Every structure is written in structure tokens, then in C-alpha cells.
């Protein structure tokens, strides 16, 4: 097992990465559990495989697990489901000093983390991420949120978990499409700041996607280490550094909004498309050699991820996608900064992008091929 620390002044926490962690959850979390009752939020898909080992571990250590099982899918990141989670935590008499366990992928982690952030003005929570996307990205760094009608993650809080247990054994039961979607966030770390890791992904992507044990663990560890470094430098995305983790997300969130946050386009798939668009747009305005944009597209294609927005069959224009982007949380005094590329491994924040030009670029992309 590897342990990676997220180093925050006075509030550091550990991310454990390894196989079999959930079966020993009581040992790993024990120091944080003050009461016999342990509240766990999960979804029906995850519960089918992972509820039992977690409950068994807790019961055999003398705890009494209490489980709330939600509908799987992005639609659960809503006011309605948030209210349900909060009411349930109140009924379970969760106190500020307690820790709620979030057992699942990005939706469960974001939603449960946000519920924990607002319950009695903040209680503790532990991330037990079971998807590749949650292990390499959303469980680390404390961004918690639900979606609003106006867009993705627009209501939320920075609320750090007390511990993250990334059990790579859970990837065995992850559907292939979810595995590919999570892999988009792995490739993202290479594209934004680590050309060597990008080259590693080009060579080893198929091993990760086929769940080769060493390759998958290495991908998770290296991704978590990259994220932990950036979060430690800029916890609340105020210094320009953490925003780089948002590479592909401004385009991606617009596509998610346009497809109604549905299974038509998973978050990781939207990020893959968004990375391709960010790379192509960077090349269009002369920041990035076109060959590098082609490498990003090729890496996305090779993983079986969507790389062409024309193929989505959207009935909209670039202006409509650009309008979605104006809800982005990075908006600053009416200006939307874009994360663009100078090279693979060298992302930067460009505050001088003309949104009309982005809209024209997107209209052309929607009609391409
Ligand atoms: O942790 C971050 O910072 C990120 O931007 C990572 C993203 O991959 C992640 O999807 C995040 O939740 C998106 O954040 P948002 O601020 O664009 O909602």
C-alpha cells in the first residue's frame, strides 16, 4: 500500500492506495470513528459489490454500520437528493465530530462531502472511492458539490476529507465505460503538467484499461501525487495553480450541461472531449504546435474515449456552448480564463481568450468530419 499525504497547514490527510483496503476499512478508519454507529452513503451499483466487505469489516470490529443507498448517476447530485442525505444524517444523529463514509464514485463523494460540509456547519467525512475517476481525482482535494439547473457543480463547498482509501481492487468491478471515463482524468495529469507521464500513458494506457494490477496502481498513485502537490499549493483555487486541474472542464462542463447531465456523456468523457478541444483551440491561436494537439487526440482515441464533438449529434451552435461556459466558476470580473497548452505537460491560464472566437471554433468543431 502507498500513502500519499495531502499537505495542508494543520489539516493534512492521507490518501491510501492499494488492493483490499475496503475489507480492512475498520482498521484504517478506526482512529476517526468515535461512536459505534457508522453512517455510510453509497449507491445501488456500488452497494451490490462493496457494501458487504465494508459492513463485515466494521461489524467484526464492533461497529454498527448504517447505510443509505442512493440511485446511481449524475442526477443524484441534486438539491432533492442532497436534502435526502442531510435529513438521513440528522436522523442518524450525526454530530460535528463524527465521520460519514462516502462509498462510491465521484457523484457519491461530491454529494456526501457537500452534505458533510453543511451538516451542523460541518462534520467529518472519509472518502472510499470505488471508481477510477474518484480515486485519481474527485476524492482528493475537497471540492464537494451538487449541480444546479444553470450548470455543473455550481453549488458546493471546499471541505476536505479526513482520509481517502483508494482500494484499487474496486476497479475489477467497474464497467469498462466508467474505467475509460476515469482514465481521461489520468491522461489529464500528463497533458497539464507532466510530459513524461503523458508518454507513459501513451505506452501503457491499454494496460491500465485492462486493469493490469501494476499499471493501474501506478496510474492511481502518480495521479494522486500530482493532485496532492497542486492542492497543497493552492487549496481554494485562488492562486491560479489549482485551476490547471480544470483542464478540459470548461469545454467539458458545457457539453455536460447541453446533454442534460445524463448517461449520454459521462463526466470523464466530457473531460476527454474538453481536453481535445482545449488542445485544438491552443493550436488554433498559435500557442501549441499542431502535432501536440494531434497527440492529445490520439491518446483519447486510443482509450476509446470520444474525441469529436460532431459525433455527439448535438443540436446546438458554438454560441450555445459558449453561453454555458459563462456559468463557469473561474469567471472573474466578467472574464472567463481558459486553461490552454503551450506544450504537452505545460498548461497555463489564459485570461485573454475572446469568447466569440471560442464560439466560432466550437461551431466549426460541431460541423467537422
Ligand atoms: O480538483 C480540482 O480543482 C479540479 O478542477 C478537478 C476536476 O477534475 C474535478 O472534476 C472538479 O470537481 C471540477 O471542479 P469545478 O470547480 O470545475 O467544478
TrEMBL record:
Q: Which GO terms describe its biological process?
A: amino acid biosynthetic process; aromatic amino acid family biosynthetic process; chorismate biosynthetic process
Signal peptide from the UniProt entry: none
Q: Provide the top EC class.
A: lyase
Q: Which residues form the 3-dehydroquinate synthase C-terminal domain?
A: 182-330
Provide the binding site for Zn(2+). Answer: 185, 249, 267
Q: Name one GO molecular function term.
A: metal ion binding
Q: Which InterPro entries match?
A: Dehydroquinate_synthase (IPR050071), DHQ_synth_AroB (IPR016037), DHQ_synth_fam (IPR030963), DHQS/DOIS_N (IPR030960), DHQS_C (IPR056179)
All residue ranges annotated as the 3-dehydroquinate synthase N-terminal domain in the record: 68-180
What pathway is it annotated to? Metabolic intermediate biosynthesis; chorismate biosynthesis; chorismate from D-erythrose 4-phosphate and phosphoenolpyruvate: step 2/7
Cellular component annotations (GO), alphabetically ordered: cytoplasm
Q: Which UniProt keywords apply?
A: Amino-acid biosynthesis, Aromatic amino acid biosynthesis, Cobalt, Cytoplasm, Lyase, Metal-binding, NAD, Nucleotide-binding, Zinc
Matching entries from Pfam families are given as: DHQ_synthase (PF01761), DHQS_C (PF24621)
- Kindly list the cofactors needed: Zn(2+); Co(2+); NAD(+)
Q: How is the cofactor bound?
A: Binds 1 divalent metal cation per subunit. Can use either Co(2+) or Zn(2+).
Q: Which reaction is this enzyme known to catalyze?
A: 7-phospho-2-dehydro-3-deoxy-D-arabino-heptonate = 3-dehydroquinate + phosphate
Residues at which NAD(+) binds: 106-110, 130-131, 143, 152, 170-173
UniProt EC number? 4.2.3.4
Principal location listed in the UniProt entry: cytoplasm
Give the subcellular location.
Cytoplasm
Give the domain of life. Answer: Bacteria
What family does this belong to? Answer: Belongs to the sugar phosphate cyclases superfamily. Dehydroquinate synthase family.
What is this protein for, i.e. what is its function? Answer: Catalyzes the conversion of 3-deoxy-D-arabino-heptulosonate 7-phosphate (DAHP) to dehydroquinate (DHQ).
Name of the protein: 3-dehydroquinate synthase
Give the organism, scientific name. Aurantiacibacter spongiae
Task: Provide the gene name from the record.
Answer: aroB
Amino acid at each position: 500500500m502507498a500513502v500519499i499525504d495531502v499537505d495542508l497547514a494543520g489539516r493534512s490527510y492521507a490518501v491510501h492506495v492499494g488492493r483490499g483496503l475496503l475489507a480492512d476499512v475498520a482498521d484504517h478508519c478506526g482512529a476517526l470513528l468515535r461512536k459505534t454507529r457508522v453512517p455510510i452513503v453509497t449507491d445501488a451499483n456500488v452497494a451490490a459489490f462493496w457494501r458487504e466487505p465494508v459492513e463485515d469489516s466494521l461489524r467484526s470490529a464492533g461497529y454498527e454500520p448504517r447505510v443509505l443507498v442512493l440511485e446511481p448517476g449524475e442526477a443524484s447530485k441534486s438539491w432533492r437528493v442532497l436534502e435526502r442525505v442531510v435529513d438521513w444524517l440528522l436522523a442518524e444523529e450525526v454530530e460535528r465530530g463524527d465521520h460519514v463514509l462516502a462509498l462510491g464514485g465521484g457523484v457519491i463523494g461530491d454529494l456526501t462531502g457537500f452534505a458533510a460540509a453543511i451538516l451542523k456547519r460541518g462534520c467529518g467525512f472519509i472518502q472510499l472511492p470505488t471508481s477510477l475517476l474518484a480515486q485519481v481525482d474527485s476524492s482528493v482535494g475537497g471540492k464537494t458539490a451538487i449541480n444546479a439547473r444553470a450548470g455543473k457543480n455550481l453549488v458546493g463547498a471546499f471541505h476536505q476529507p479526513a482520509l481517502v482509501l483508494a482500494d484499487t481492487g474496486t476497479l475489477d468491478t467497474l464497467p469498462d465505460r466508467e474505467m475509460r471515463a476515469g482514465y481521461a482524468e489520468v491522461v489529464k495529469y500528463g497533458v497539464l503538467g507532466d510530459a513524461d507521464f503523458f508518454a507513459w500513458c501513451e505506452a501503457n494506457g491499454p494496460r491500465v484499461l485492462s486493469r493490469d494490477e501494476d499499471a493501474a496502481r501506478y496510474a492511481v498513485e502518480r495521479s494522486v501525487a500530482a493532485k496532492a502537490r497542486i492542492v497543497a499549493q493552492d487549496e481554494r483555487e485562488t492562486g491560479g495553480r489549482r485551476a490547471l486541474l480544470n483542464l478540459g472542464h470548461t469545454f467539458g462542463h458545457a457539453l455536460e450541461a447541453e446533454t442534460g447531465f445524463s448517461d449520454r456523456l459521462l463526466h470523464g468523457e466530457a473531460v476527454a472531449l474538453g481536453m481535445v478541444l482545449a488542445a485544438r483551440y491552443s493550436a488554433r491561436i498559435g500557442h501549441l504546435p499542431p502535432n501536440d494537439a494531434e497527440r492529445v487526440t490520439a491518446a483519447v482515441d486510443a482509450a476509446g474515449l470520444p474525441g469529436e464533438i460532431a459525433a455527439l449529434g448535438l443540436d446546438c451552435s458554438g454560441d450555445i456552448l459558449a453561453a454555458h461556459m459563462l456559468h463557469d466558476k473561474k469567471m472573474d470580473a466578467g472574464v472567463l480564463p481558459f486553461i490552454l497548452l503551450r506544450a504537452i505537460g505545460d498548461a497555463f491560464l489564459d485570461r485573454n481568450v475572446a469568447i466569440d472566437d471560442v464560439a466560432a471554433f466550437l461551431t466549426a468543431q460541431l460541423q467537422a468530419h
